[in-house]
Each structure stands twice: as structure tokens, then as C-alpha cells.
Amino acid sequence: MILRQGKLRLQKWYVPLCDKEKKKITRELVQTVLARKPKMCSFLEWRDLKIVYKRSVEW
């Protein structure tokens, strides 16, 4: 789940990666997702991966 400020609330990794690599990937993905229109689907093909995300609205 991604907040509007670009913070990641929930994430699940299925392959082991070092923290530095996770941060880099997370930063790139958050920028990509936030650049998409809200009405677009929540599935994204990125590099050789399929990403499923949900935008969260903070009250």
C-alpha cells in the first residue's frame, strides 16, 4: 500500500535482497506508481516483474 506522500505502508518480498537494493527498488516503484492516473489498474509490469499495488488514502 502506498500513501500519497510516497511512503510504503505494506510490502512483501518473495526473493531475498539486501536492504540497499530493496530501498532502491521501492523508490523507483513508488515514483512509477504515483505517476500513474488513479483510475488505472493496480497491476504493473516493471522490468521482468509483475507488481500489484494499492493506493491508500490518508484521512
TrEMBL record:
Pfam families tied to this protein: Clat_adaptor_s
AP complex mu/sigma subunit domain ranges (all copies): 4-57
Residue ranges of the TM segments: none
Main localization category: membrane
Compartment annotation: Endomembrane system
Entry's Gene Ontology BP terms: protein transport
Gene Ontology CC: endomembrane system
PANTHER family: ADAPTOR COMPLEXES SMALL SUBUNIT FAMILY (PTHR11753)
Family, as annotated: Belongs to the adaptor complexes small subunit family.
Protein name: Adaptor related protein complex 1 subunit sigma 2
